[in-house]
Specification:
heterodimer, A: mainly alpha, 4 helices, flat, B: alpha/beta, Rossmann fold, six-stranded parallel beta sheet, 17 helices, 6 strands, elongated
Chain lengths: 93, 463
């Protein structure tokens, strides 16, 4: 990827992140942390890519470990966030 | 699948993550947002199996290993997420964050081993960054988890020459990082990983229990940045977007929390290094306090017009959230105006109390933020403080030099009467005496919060 493209994506994503999160109600800060946590679990995609082109046992072993950890992070994160948010839903004013 | 389609789907998943965070602006839209995010993540994961990276072909190599590892991850992650108690949420978030950081570091190491001498300088620099920060995030999160789970002391761990050791480790990490960039070798990279793990441990050890939430949030932001850096090395738009979003949102949240505690982020993280170890004996002076019975409390509540409930971590420990709601419902049925005053850092995680009370089906509109509730204390007849101490301690306003001085507090001392539900006279996390306990308008109700509240409920019913 062109470095300038990478830098552009990075800078724009920083601003989107700032904007979106500064509007989050403080009632939902715990789900926010766990939701953001789940999002970085998408490193699973990276772990699968490196497992695909692993050629030695060391590389394969490390990438298998990475897949296990990333899956826990991603799936566990979304499930637990959903559990929390489900509790907030039934309150109608 | 063409590269363009693959990248477009990645972009779609990135948008799904933005919508997931955006949904959290209101409890009504939050759950749907999270499901959109989960959908995006699932889609992104499925798509990798249908796109061959350059130099590779379909189906993916090592497919059995990949699928097997995912099954193990699911078998560990899903039950953990389903079973965890709401009181233990901070630990779980810390742990999930740690494994994410660990995964990012491992991905970087594998990619480095794979690329070998072909790696460009930029790729090596990003790899070194990911290994350092991912390892720090991993080991730091593990220590955070142990502190929260009380597998180790929650007090700051301060050792002789600690500051020097930590600084030396950091210099070592940076030095070895430079060595990896210059010399390219597997051994230096593994040394770098080891030193970074050590630095993560040393970095979190001196942080006291009350400041741990800030550390979780900061490490979360760190892991996000490592994912973004991996995105550059692995040529994935999705990882760059997702990682940067988390890095940015984590940074903002960390700052908000530090503000809620009334201090700079730097002070929180490095304050412990300059602090003197606390006197563990903490000679408690014997002074008269007014303790009351559940009946006294019930009578007081029965004649109140407005009651504010201030929950703290003690509520979580006693699992008293359902009993609190029972009491609140009973008071509402008697025509009493009831609200909850939530301090932003009450509990062990920002918003922790909101989650606990939501679990007990407390409507979220009864939960009022500090700035909303503070002006109303002067019209409040009774403030019930349940298992909270530091967040209502007037010392934060009137005792310069005390560790929590400057922290915004819930001004319960403006209420006509204050009831403290406490287990003992032991001071809170920060270890500071609370003058409010000795105030003539304060009544102390000693005992387990849940048991005490149950007694108050039955006494109030009988009136």
């Amino acid at each position: 990827m062109e470095p300038i493209a990478v830098i552009s994506i990075f800078v724009l994503a920083v601003f989107v992140g700032f904007e979106v999160v500064s509007k989050v109600s403080s009632t939902l800060h715990t789900p926010l942390m766990s939701g953001a946590n789940a999002i970085h679990g998408v490193i699973l995609v990276g772990a699968i890519i490196v497992a695909d082109h692993s050629t030695t046992n060391l590389e394969l072993g490390l990438s298998v470990a990475a897949i296990v950890l990333a899956t826990i992070n991603m799936v566990g994160g979304f499930v637990v966030t959903d559990r929390m948010l489900e509790m907030f839903k039934g309150n109608k004013k | 699948m063409s590269r363009t389609l693959y990248d477009l789907i990645g972009l779609g998943a990135g948008v799904a993550f933005i919508l997931a965070l955006k949904g959290l602006s209101h409890p009504k839209t939050a759950r749907r947002g999270n499901l959109i995010g989960a959908f995006g993540a699932t889609l992104a994961t499925l798509v990798v199996f249908f796109y061959a990276n350059p130099g590779s072909s379909l189906p993916l190599n090592n497919l059995g290993w990949i699928l097997g590892a995912m099954v193990i991850g699911l078998a560990v992650g899903v039950p953990a997420a389903r079973k965890v108690e709401m009181t233990q949420m901070p630990q779980l978030v810390a742990l999930f964050n740690g494994v994410g950081g660990g995964a990012a570091a491992l991905v970087a190491i594998v990619e480095y081993l794979h690329l070998g001498a072909e790696a460009t300088t930029a790729e090596v620099i990003f790899t070194v960054f990911t290994v350092i920060v991912g390892c720090v995030s991993f080991s730091g999160s593990v220590i955070t988890f142990m502190k929260l789970q009380e597998l180790m002391t929650t007090r700051p761990v301060i050792f002789p020459a600690g500051r020097f050791i930590i600084a030396a480790t950091l210099v070592g990490v940076i030095g070895v990082g430079g060595w990896v960039v210059a010399a390219l070798g597997t051994t230096p990279l593994l040394i770098l990983a080891g030193l970074s793990l050590l630095f993560g441990v040393l970095f979190v050890l001196p942080v006291g229990g009350a400041d741990v939430p800030i550390v979780i949030s900061l490490l979360n932001a760190f892991t996000g940045l490592t994912v973004a850096a991996s995105g550059y090395v692995l040529d994935s738009v999705l990882l760059i977007i997702a990682g940067t979003l988390v890095g940015a949102s984590g940074t903002i949240l960390t700052r908000l929390m530090a503000e809620a505690m009334g201090r700079s982020l730097f002070g929180t993280l490095f304050g412990a290094f300059t602090a003197k170890p606390q006197d563990a004996s903490g000679a408690v002076e014997e002074r008269p306090v007014r303790s009351g019975s559940p009946d006294d409390v019930a009578i007081l509540l029965n004649y109140a017009r407005r009651v504010v409930i201030v929950p703290g971590f003690g509520l979580a420990v006693a699992q008293a959230q359902h009993t609190v709601r029972e009491l609140a419902d009973l008071m509402i049925s008697k025509g009493i105006d009831v609200a909850y005053g939530i301090h932003p850092v009450a509990g062990r995680m920002p918003g922790h109390m909101n989650v606990l009370l939501a679990e007990a089906n407390v409507p979220y509109y009864q939960l009022e933020e500090m700035d909303e509730i503070n002006p109303t204390f002067s019209q409040t007849d009774v403030a019930i403080v349940i298992g909270a101490n530091d967040v209502v301690n007037p010392a934060a306003e009137n005792t310069p030099g005390c560790p929590i001085y400057g922290m915004p507090i819930l001004k319960v001392s403006n209420a006509a009467n204050v009831i403290f539900l406490k287990r003992s006279m032991r001071p809170g996390f920060a270890g500071i005496e609370n003058e409010l306990l000795y105030d003539p308008k304060t009544i102390l109700l000693f005992g387990d919060a849940k048991a005490s509240l149950t007694k108050v409920v039955s006494a109030l019913k009988a009136l």
